[in-house]
Backbone:
C-alpha cells in the first residue's frame, strides 16, 4: 500500500503546490516512486515528462477517489496530494485519508497564527516553513518568531524550505531538461525529512561531488524546530 501524504492548510499562497512538487521530485531523486496528485480546480494538470515522478489529475471528487484507491493498491509508492487551500471540508477529508500531513507556512504573523490553528486541528500534521528567507539575519528573525509563536509545537516543525526562485520551474507545464543543482538539493533535503518521518528506509543514491557541500543539515542549536529525536535515523 502506498503511503499518502497531503499538503494542506487553511490559507492560499503558502507554497502547497510548490512544496508538493519539490517533495515528489526529491523523492524521485532519492530513488522513491511518487505521484503528485492535483486537486485544485483552478490549476491545470502538468506534464510528467522530465520529472522524477508522475502526475495525477484528481480535480473531481470521483477522480480523487479513483486515484487514492489506485495508490492504495501500489506497494512502495508515495502519493502526495496537493490540497487546494481555503477549503476546510476538503482538508478534513484529505487529512482522514493521509498517513502524514504537511502544512506549509510563510514567515508572516498571519501564516504563523493560521498554522498553529491547523496544527491543533490536525494532530498528525507537521508544519513546514516555506519560502524561508535565505538572508542570515532575516532567517534568524523568522526563526525567532517561530520559536515565540510556535514553541509548543517545535517537535512538529520540519526544517525550512528556502525561498528559491527556481522552484517555479517545477510548476511549469513542461519542466526544462536540466534543473538547477540548488533546486535538486532543496528537493532532496525535503524528501529526506519526510522519509525520516515516514520511517522509510532508503539508500541514498550517489550524488555528484559538487553537490555534497550544499546538502545542509542544521544543528539543533541553530533552529528551535526539529523533529523529535526518536523520529530521526542516521544515514
Ligand atoms: N520555496 C519557494 N521559493 C520561492 N517562491 C516560492 C516557493 N514556494 C512557493 N513560491 C511561490 O509562491 C507562490 C505561491 O506558491 P504555491 O505553491 O502556488 O502556493 P499554494 O499552492 O499554497 O497556493 C508562487 O508564486 C510560487 O512560485
Ligand atoms: Mg496550490
Residues:
Amino acid at each position: 500500500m502506498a503511503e499518502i501524504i497531503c499538503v494542506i492548510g487553511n490559507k492560499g499562497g503558502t507554497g502547497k503546490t510548490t512544496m508538493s512538487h519539490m517533495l515528489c521530485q526529491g523523492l524521485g531523486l532519492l530513488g522513491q516512486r511518487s505521484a503528485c496528485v492535483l486537486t485544485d480546480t483552478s490549476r491545470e494538470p502538468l506534464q510528467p515528462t522530465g520529472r522524477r515522478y508522475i502526475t495525477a489529475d484528481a480535480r473531481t471528487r470521483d477522480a480523487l477517489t479513483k486515484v487514492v484507491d489506485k495508490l492504495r493498491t501500489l506497494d512502495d509508492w508515495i502519493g502526495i496530494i496537493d490540497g487546494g487551500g481555503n477549503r476546510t471540508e476538503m482538508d478534513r477529508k484529505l487529512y482522514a485519508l493521509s498517513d502524514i500531513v504537511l502544512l506549509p507556512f510563510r514567515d508572516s504573523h498571519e501564516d504563523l497564527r493560521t498554522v498553529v490553528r491547523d496544527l491543533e486541528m490536525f494532530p498528525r500534521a507537521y508544519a513546514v516553513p516555506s519560502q524561508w528567507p535565505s538572508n542570515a539575519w532575516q532567517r534568524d528573525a523568522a526563526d525567532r518568531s517561530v520559536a515565540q509563536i510556535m514553541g509548543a509545537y517545535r517537535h512538529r516543525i520540519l526544517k525550512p524550505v528556502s525561498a528559491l526562485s527556481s522552484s517555479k520551474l517545477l510548476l511549469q507545464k513542461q519542466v526544462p531538461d536540466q534543473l538547477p543543482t540548488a533546486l535538486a538539493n532543496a528537493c532532496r533535503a525535503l524528501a529526506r525529512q519526510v522519509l525520516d518521518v515516514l520511517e522509510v528506509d532508503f539508500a541514498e543514491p550517489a550524488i555528484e561531488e559538487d553537490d555534497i557541500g550544499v546538502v545542509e543539515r542544521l544543528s539543533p542549536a541553530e533552529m528551535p524546530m526539529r523533529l523529535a529525536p526518536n523520529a530521526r535515523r542516521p544515514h
About this structure: The first strand starts at residue 3 and ends at 7. The beta strands are 3-7, 33-38, 54-57, 77-82, 100-105, 125-129. Residues 212-232 have pLDDT under 50 and may be disordered. Residues 16-17, 40, 82 surround magnesium ion (ligand 2) (CB under 6 Å).
